[in-house]
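=== RUN LOG ===
request id: a7f3
mode: sequence -> structure
chains: 1
length: 482
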Amino acid sequence: MNDLNLLFIMPDQLRPDFLSCYGADFIETPNIDSIADQGVLYENAYSTSPVCVAARHNLLTGLNSIRTGVLGNGQFLRPDYNECGMHTWPELIESAGYRSAAIGKMHFYPWDASMGFHDRVVCEDKRWLYIEDDYFEYLDQRGLRKLHGDEHHGYHENKGAVVHQHSFSDSWDYFVGAEAAKYIHSYEDSQPFAMMVGLPGPHCPYDPSSEYADYFNPEDMPKAIPEVLDDHPLLTLQNIQGNKRPWNGVDYSEFTDHQKAKIRAHYAGLVKQIDHIIGEIIKALNDQGKLDKTVIIFSSDHGDYLGDHNLIGKGHFFESSCHIPLIVRLPDGEKKGTNTDLVALGDITPTMLRMAGVSPPNYMDFQPLPSLGIETDKRDYLYGMMGGGWMCFDGRWKLCKYLTGEHLLFDLYEDPAEQNNLLKRNDSGVVYQRLDSALTTEIMRSVEASHRDKVVYDSDLSGDIAFGKKGWKRPYPNSLLN
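=== RESULT ===
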């Protein structure tokens, strides 16, 4: 299949229940739906590290977050990752003759690092206003600049829900979509391309352009899931304190139903903008005769609470935060149906490699997606890993353990809104022990593997003559490969 183009489109902070192909009845997303109508829609897809940078490193490397050491937004791969035997997917896919491109938000440090991509057009995070990326230059040529949310009317009282001052054609997402379409239109290389498109929206601020700001009535939005007051007060406090920081500057100590509804309406407006942009990218493929030569993968790095559990943003293992959309359209455009297996965002990486004709390295933690004609295993558990929490989920029972000391266990068959923490009952022991045992085993395995660079030897040195000589030096760093 290595003559196929690969296109991976990833909006930032998009939850599946705001897409009509996932059952939302208050919004129509026909262009995203068209991918699902001609492909595989994964109902049980999860981001196992639901914050921006950590999730992207799962994708970049095919490793879980303990293995990469990137457990939050303030961490990044060590600079000598290649010497440790680690390779990014664009580096690996090059061996199959692909030209790779990264268009939009990638969240690299430094922001203009290539990380193996041949081509880059950079439009970084909506909160990073001082990055002089390609979008900065685009705005500057028009006498415009990036704007903080608090430069807009009603930002604080509406908890981040505003109408952006820039027109849709000058928005973050439009710029990225236009650059992706331009790349497709101008691509004349004999090599197939592997392109990742990172849309900065619908991440907060909830700032649709005026063309989309009144598209949805707050009263028509689905209600936020209530908070169970004694379940996670410390997580809630952390969420409030984190959002008070200058990047956001919004105080969610008081968060009314009206404010949540307005945020949801503005978020839906951003989703509607993104659906339009997806349509333009698909049109570019069709216009260039590339649609039936391209695998399209659509997903997101994590979701957004939008007031669920009285929280905002992401960063925990509630469904609103870690449940993601994931859709794959193969070039034949034939409907492959809906898949209900447990799959992870990181599974996209070995899937793309296999589709390119590259064998995923045996050190990867993720596996190819099912229902695509690729041999893969059905997993028993998904493991979530972040700096502040762990998760073990078997598709029904979900165990979450947080650094705050707050532990939660939910039965999603009986309690999909995660309102009944079963650890408050005395009859959850068997389930808890099974999940906790599986989680502990995986964490231990990952911790040991994450220190592979410090390994001195894999076999006994007692019979090694060279080791006994003065001046012996151990290999450093040691490779991920055994």
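=== NOTES ===
The chain has two domains: 5-381, 389-468.
The radius of gyration is 23 Å.
=== END ===
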